[in-house]
Design brief:
Layout: H1 5-36, H2 44-55, H3 62-90, H4 96-117, H5 124-140, H6 144-156, H7 162-180, E1 181-184, E2 189-192, H8 195-211, H9 219-232, H10 236-250, H11 252-255, H12 261-266, E3 274-276, H13 287-296, H14 303-307
Parallel strand pairs: 2-3
Antiparallel strand pairs: 1-2
Helix pairs in contact: 1-2, 1-3, 2-5, 3-4, 3-5, 4-5, 5-6, 6-7, 7-8, 8-9, 8-13, 9-10
């Protein structure tokens, strides 16, 4: 069709209408997000991570619009779930079956959404948003290995934001705990069942945290977690250095004597009590040795390389 003045005018009106509709969609996304984060059961880290995903939905075109619709579905799923939790808490007695029902409905909805997110139908920022949203769905389902896989892919696509690196480091560490430790009723702590592989996995988590350092206030949270993971892996000297750096950034009063201060703020759980089931003490490992090991671990790995 030739570009006559009428065609050009119609096309301009259509583009203006599409842009107006997209703006409305953006506003609707943030309204839904604001409504969701009003629930006490939504962590501050989740809020920040959702805002990051929302930023990846702000483009024009069908792909960005498709992602906005999927993200809106996710926010609706989470809003229904947290609304149910609030209603259950407000009741004097809530049957366990009601909580299980709310959880099962959420799981079914999340799995259906993952099916939609399973194919790479987008490019650029929308593709990064699609992968991050899939990672978040897997996280809510407790599928940590898939969370790590999706977050690593998001980083490869260019989603190198400190929040993404933090999420990757945390979930790598969580995966290490799940794979290489077990709870001991006798000691009341988790026992490391494979010291070497646990340490390697922890160093990979530390590498992700380090990649998120940007010289700003959030570095305090990253350094605090670097310290905790190094301490859990048996590197006390390097851990102490990271705690000191965290204290300098966050403020010594917020770190010293407040076990769990950093994870409480981000809505995460941390249990730093570990003991080695086997293995001889070989002396303290210095921060320089940890740094060199981390550099070796920065090459590409598949999750199966560590956990098969």
């Amino acid at each position: 069709m030739r570009n006559t003045p009428w065609n050009l005018q119609a096309r301009g009106q259509s583009e203006a209408l599409t842009k107006a509709m997209s703006t409305a969609d953006h506003q609707d996304i943030f309204r839904r997000l604001d409504s969701l984060v009003e629930y006490d059961t939504v962590s501050s880290f989740a809020h920040a991570f959702y805002e990051l995903i929302a930023e990846y939905t702000l483009g024009q075109g069908r792909q960005a619009l498709w992602l906005r619709h999927r993200f809106a579905e996710y926010l609706d799923i989470e809003t229904r779930y947290h609304r149910s939790l609030k209603a259950l808490v407000s009741r004097s007695s809530a049957p366990f079956g009601d909580l299980r029902s709310a959880t099962e409905k959420r799981e079914i909805a999340l799995r259906a959404l993952i099916e939609q997110l399973g194919r790479p139908t987008t490019v650029g920022p929308a593709e990064r948003g699609r992968v991050l949203l899939a990672a978040e769905c897997y996280y809510q389902l407790g599928l940590t290995d898939r969370v790590v896989d999706r977050l690593e892919h998001a980083v490869e696509l260019g989603a190198e934001h400190p929040l993404v690196q933090f999420a990757l480091g945390y979930n790598r560490y969580l995966l290490a705990v799940q794979a290489f430790t077990r709870y001991s009723a006798d000691s009341g702590a988790r026992e490391i069942t494979d010291e070497d592989r646990f340490r390697v996995a922890c160093l990979r988590a530390v590498t992700a945290f380090q990649e998120g350092l940007r010289g700003d206030e959030f570095d305090g949270q990253l350094q605090w977690w670097i310290g905790n993971v190094l301490e859990a892996a048996g590197f006390p000297e390097a851990a102490a250095t990271s705690f000191e750096k965290a204290g300098q950034i966050i403020g010594a009063s917020e770190v010293a004597g407040q076990e769990g201060a950093g994870d409480a703020e981000l809505g995460l759980d941390f249990d730093g009590q570990y003991r080695y089931e086997t293995g001889d003490e070989s002396g303290p490992i210095t921060e320089e040795e940890v740094r060199k090991a981390a550099l070796l671990l920065q090459r590409r790995y598949q999750v199966s390389d560590l956990f098969d």
